[in-house]
Structure formats: C-alpha cells, structure tokens
Amino acid sequence: MSSRVRRALVGITAAVIAFLGVGQPASAHGFSSVVYVHITGGDGGRVRTVLELEYDLFVVSAADAEHDDPLFRAGTAAFEAEDARAQAAAIESHSDSAVRYVTERFSVGAGGKACTPSRAGDVTMGRREGVPYASLPLEWACPAGDGDREVRSTLFPGSEGYVRDTRTIATYDLTGISGSAALDAGHPSFSISQSWYERFWEFFRLGAEHLLTGVDHILFLLALIAGSRRLREIVLAATSFTLAHSVTFLLAALGLVEAPGRIVEPVIALSIAVVAGWHLWRLRRHDDRAAVLAGPAEQGPLGLDRAGWLRLGVVFCFGLVHGLGFAGALGIDEPWSWTLLWSLLVFNVGIEAVQLGIIVIVFPLLALLRHRAPRAGMWATGALCAGVAAMGLVWFVQRVLEG
C-alpha cells in the first residue's frame, strides 16, 4: 500500500474520531440532569406531585431566573458545606423564588385546562447517584370533570446554559392507572391515559438516543468491531457485552446494586482504552499483521482460541460497568413493579437496537476492506483503535481528576 493511501486512511479515521469526540465532556453522562416526579391522587380530586431536583442546579437556575442573589449565596454556601439541613433551609427561606421557578416550567393539566399549584409540604433533602437532591411536594387543584391529566416539564432547559439537557422520569398511580414516562426537550409532555405502546416507545426512544449521544459507549463498540476478525467474534463479543450490561442495568435501576459515578465513569473510560489497546497489542506481537486480521483464529470452543476467550471475559467484565452507567443515565430506583420492569427492558432494547445497527453498518465495511486489501484494513483498524485508545485515556484522566 502506498504511503499516500496510508496517510489518507489514517487521516479519515482521525477525522471520524475527532468528529465523535469534539465538544464532548469528559463524562458522556455529565452536564445533564434528571428530574424525578412521583404523581399520585390527593384529597378532593387534587393531584399530588413530589419533584426531586438536583440541588445545586435547582439553586443556581432558580436564583438566576428569579434574580434572587440571596438564594444563590445561601444555597451555594450550604452546598459547599455539604449540610443537608442548611440546604433545605436555604430553599425554604426563598420558597417563593424556588416554587415559582418550578411551576413556571412544570405543570399539570386536566381536560386541556391548567391545574392550580400550591405547596403541599416542606422541602426535604436526599441523594441520588451521590448527588444531593431536593424534594418539593406540590398539590394541583384541577377543574371539575373527568378530563385526562396531562403532565408537562421543561425544567432546566439547555437554553439556560447550565446543563446540556434534562430528562424527567415520571412515575404515576392516579385514578386507577399506574405507569412511568420519560420526558425531554423533544417530548416535554405525556398523558396519564396514554396507551402502553406510547409509553414504551418513549423508553425505547430514550434508550436509543442515550447510546447515540453517549460517545464513550459508541467508541467502546467501535473498538470491539475493529478488533474482531470474523462475524462470529463480534457477535459473541456484542452478546457478552449485552448480557453483562443488561444484568447490572436492571439491578442498578431497580436499586439492588449501587456504585458511585466517580468510580463508574473512569472505569468506563478505561475500558475503552483497554479494548482498543488490545487490538494494537495483537498487531504489534504478530509479524504478519495483515494475515492476523484477515485469517481465522486457532479453533476452540465456539471457534475461539484462548486469547479470544480472554477477550470475551474482559468485555463481559467491562459490560457490567457500562450497565451501571446506563442505569445512572435513566436513574430509576423505585420499588418493584411490572410496569417499571417493562419500561426498563424497553429502554435497554432501544440501546441494543442502535448497537446492532452500528455493527451491521461498520463491520461489513471493515470486513470488505480486509478481504480486498488486508494491509489497508490493518492500517484502518489500527488507526481507529489508536484514536479510540487515546481518547479513552484522556477521558480516564479527566474523570479521575473530576471525581
């Protein structure tokens, strides 16, 4: 292969890596927030909501929107002191600003008419994913009649400049109907009486969008594809990864296991570098590198040699950690229910659909290149893995320092 072609392949691969990584934060799950809403029936036909909001984001956003500098100073001081009582007191002492900020961006309606909000209790503090959250209970007086209840949330929009995006995860048990829903900027509202397929489509879409916007998971998958010589290898690797992250995703999302983000996120970044580096190491230790990429491996169980099985085990272990990252993005840790379980499974199916789509597109292209021009395939996959490994190491260092 000529040096000109070689430089072109390396340049194209580097451009792809740069495109995926440009502007991305050190954590694919950072700079975004999740709001949790619990919706139940109240006295006299009222609707009761309990909103859980990320404390420091709530304080900064409300103070800025309502021009309440004392709220910002008191809330920030309490946050830095890690004093839960002081945090709750800071919001309570500026409850007008805090409640007004929320009710201007979160609403309940009935039959197409707005319900009137009011305070329904004191602010309390808790923690999710190691982050302080403020719980704000509200009651909504709705117009008389049996009109359908609609919930709308545009809390913490990206236009405020504090977070990239916000998801609102709602669980509800109202008028004999229970379920869960996922809202974001593109889909800010839902109806309590929505059909089961509408509800599940929201979670499928949320899972698909999470993988598409989670560049670290995409790079991990690209490293798996680049390091697989045959279709069987990528199928087994992807299956191992899927099984592993599905297990920890469900356990973590249901609150049965927990791991702090300051540990999970660096390990995810390290997994990217390790899986990509694995292929580079194989290239270095074999003299006929093109043949290694194109030819069959030594036969063993399921057609894998010892190195193939070791790689599969490493992928499975890292998949367990990636599952914790997926669960952290969705953030549901409610009591067990079949509705919740199905919502979580559909979210996971959305992730898998995008993952399968990437494999179907990328692997045949690499396989064709390896077959037609083995050395060009070697350089293409080597450049791809080098770029992925470098980005994984950069993210690892950033996430460790941020933690």
Q: Which percent range describes the beta-strand content?
A: 15-25%
Rounded mean pLDDT is 79
Taken from the alpha-carbon principal axes, the silhouette is elongated
- Total number of beta strands: 11
Order of helices and strands: HEEHHHHEEEEEEEEEHHHHHHHH
Calculate Rg over CA atoms: 24 Å
Q: Tell me about the biggest sheet?
A: 7 strands, mixed
Secondary-structure-derived class: alpha+beta
Could you list the spans in which at least 5 consecutive residues all have pLDDT below 50? 1-30, 287-297
Q: Describe the oligomeric state of these chains in a short phrase.
A: single chain
The helix content is: 55-70%
Distance between the termini: 45 Å
Q: Features of this protein?
A:
11 strands, alpha+beta, seven-stranded mixed beta sheet, 403 residues
Report on this structure.
The protein has 403 residues and is of the alpha+beta class. Helices cover 58% and strands 17% of the residues. Strands 1, 2, 5, 6, 7, 9 and 10 form a 7-stranded mixed β-sheet that branches. A 4-stranded antiparallel β-sheet has the order 4-3-8-11, with no helix packed on it. Strand 6 and strand 7 form a beta hairpin. The longest helix is centred in the last third of the chain and has 35 residues. The N terminus is likely disordered.
Write the layout of secondary structure elements.
Elements: H1 3-21, E1 32-41, E2 47-54, H2 55-65, H3 69-81, H4 84-92, H5 95-103, E3 106-110, E4 113-114, E5 116-119, E6 124-128, E7 131-141, E8 149-153, E9 165-174, E10 177-183, E11 189-191, H6 196-213, H7 215-226, H8 231-253, H9 261-285, H10 289-294, H11 306-330, H12 338-372, H13 374-402
Parallel strand pairs: 1-9
Antiparallel strand pairs: 1-2, 2-7, 3-4, 3-8, 5-7, 6-7, 8-11, 9-10
